[in-house]
Design a protein that fits this description.
Blueprint (H helix, E strand, L loop, with lengths): L3 H11 L7 E17 L2 E19 L2 E7 L5 H15 L29 H15 L9 E17 L1
Antiparallel strand pairs: 1-2, 1-4, 2-3
């Protein structure tokens, strides 16, 4: 799994070299797991990790934007957002003066569901499915489970 914090630190240094009045980036990494039963049968089960985000740039009053779903594309996406902003910018950039905010918002959960083994989650759904199928004359059912854990990094730089 990619270390999104390290990439965030690298990006903070990278965006300083661009000639832009303002650049901001949002990096996001998600881990998910899912289980679905259709009737008595297991229909799907799996885990996935995804990463991506977006970059906005302001140059001479013009905005550029680029999104990405591969962190390896990040340097090219920063350059693209700056280039787009340069194409449309023909004024003076105006941003309101604000104090920087640094905040870490921890999850308010006792146990991260992503750390629970998928086999344990499946066993629980097996038990629920057995309970459902004890219902007389039941024709079909659909049950599902899903969880997700997200890590987001937001950074910006005034040119």
């Amino acid at each position: 799994m990619t270390n999104i914090e390290a990439i965030g630190h690298q990006l903070a240094e990278t965006i300083k070299v661009y000639s832009a009045d303002y650049i901001e980036a949002r990096l996001e990494q998600s881990q998910t797991s899912y289980i679905t039963y259709r009737g008595r049968d297991l229909d799907s089960i799996g885990k996935a990790t995804t990463a991506g985000g977006n970059v906005r740039a302001l140059v001479r009053g013009g905005w550029g934007f680029a999104s990405f779903n591969n962190l390896n594309e990040l340097p090219d996406r920063v350059a693209l957002a700056v280039k787009q902003a340069q194409f449309v910018g023909n004024e003076v950039s105006k941003l309101a003066p604000v104090e920087p905010v640094v905040d870490i918002v921890p999850s308010e959960i006792d146990k991260n569901p992503v750390t629970i083994p998928l086999a344990q989650k499946k066993q629980l759904l097996d038990e629920y499915n057995d309970i459902i199928w004890r219902t007389p004359k039941l024709q079909t059912s659909v049950i599902g489970y899903g969880d997700s854990h997200k890590k987001v990094i937001f950074l910006n730089s005034l040119g």
